[in-house]
Amino acid sequence: MTYAYDDQNIFAKILRGEIPNTTVLETEHSLAFRDLYPQAPVHVLVIPKGAYVSYDHFASEASDAEIVDYTRAIAEVCRREGVTLTAGEGFRMISNAGANGVQEVPHLHVHILGGRPLGRMLAKV
Ligand code: AMP
């Protein structure tokens, strides 16, 4: 079973330069930009430039270079946004996948949220 990637998703369009974004960081294999509808004072999305749907897709099929670049990009975004434990008050990282994860955009992204206390991880439903 292979992962199906839809290259018409909105983050693929951002990567192709077809729609604008507010870039926080760009590296060889990764792009970080501000969420259009921020849910906290810090709300940055970090995506790999490769065509990966979800974190499990990326973690199983990406090259070592892509994985290292992406992981270091996340750390650099946290540093630039002032949410690290060395300089700030912490953050939450979320990566939604598929229907149960309520993923809206089918290109891997990690949300980095911070700048205020974020409450418990999951609301009771
Ligand atoms: P998810 O539900 O995890 O797939 O989250 C998708 C996120 O993408 C949401 O937080 C949206 O606010 C955000 N989003 C959608 N379109 C854009 C866009 N053009 N630029 C930046 N963020 C976007």
Automatic annotation (TrEMBL):
InterPro entries recorded: Histidine_triad_CS (IPR019808), Histidine_triad_HIT (IPR001310), HIT-like (IPR011146), HIT-like_sf (IPR036265)
Motif annotated as Histidine triad motif, chain positions: 107-111
Domain HIT: 10-123
SUPFAM superfamilies named in the record: HIT-like
Superkingdom as given in the UniProt entry: Bacteria
Classification via Gene3D superfamilies: HIT-like
The protein, known as: Histidine triad nucleotide-binding protein
PANTHER family per the UniProt record, alphabetical: HISTIDINE TRIAD HIT PROTEIN (PTHR23089)
Record organism: Roseobacter sinensis
